[in-house]
Amino acid sequence: MPIDGTVKRVVLFDIDGTLVNAGPLGAEVFDRAVEAVLGRLPATRIFMSGKTDPLIVREYLHALGLDGALMPGVLARLEREMAAAAFTLPESGRALPGASELLEALADDERLHLSVLTGNIAPNAAVKLGAFGLDKWLDLETGAYGSDNEDRAQLVPVALDRLAALRGIRLAPSQAWVVGDTPRDYEAARAVGAHSVLVATGRFTVTELGQLGADAVLADLTGTDPVVELLTADL
Length: 235
Ligand SMILES: [Mg+2]
Known about the structure:
Layout: E1 9-13, E2 20-21, H1 24-38, H2 53-63, H3 71-85, H4 89-92, E3 94-95, H5 99-107, E4 112-116, H6 122-131, H7 155-167, E5 176-180, H8 183-190, E6 195-199, H9 206-210, E7 216-218, H10 224-231
Parallel strand pairs: 1-4, 1-5, 5-6, 6-7
Antiparallel strand pairs: 2-3
The structure holds magnesium ion (MG).
């Protein structure tokens, strides 16, 4: 455990589209869970990027004209389906370019605490990161997840509270940096005055992400040194 006072900044990584591309399995797991519990699928697939798992399930339920009370059952099934898919994830998807090199480099810096801010429910986040060997550099216990709040914009304080409660590290929102791939990642940071770096390895382009007001927008996470410099600036 880092000594209190050493850590000056927490970097909260989104998972899908930022560190990992789960490939077709990412959405298939949703379809399996929805079909298993609800017996059918909507005519068109829900757009998932940047949304929390509970929000995606809510939109599935809405598209099918069903009640939100069915959500916990679908989320429980989603956890089971992801666990069952764990061993096929490495064939379906991949770690995104530069992700592991960046995490490895940042993990060496004792001024930083590395965790996640993701729409995935917590168990599925661990499965996805573990499948691509990225979990070893991230403190997943202090992360914030879709299972904590359906609204991504509420998640930075969740991560900061966990960091204080579990590690004795008290940081202000302005000491948090969110790294994500969608306008919703930016919004999660902006909502509380945290910083953000957006990366165009998901479904949004550099141009689209560049209009939001993030601290930086990158094509991808390759070229480790400049990204480390960006995330450790002014420390
Ligand atoms: Mg994402």
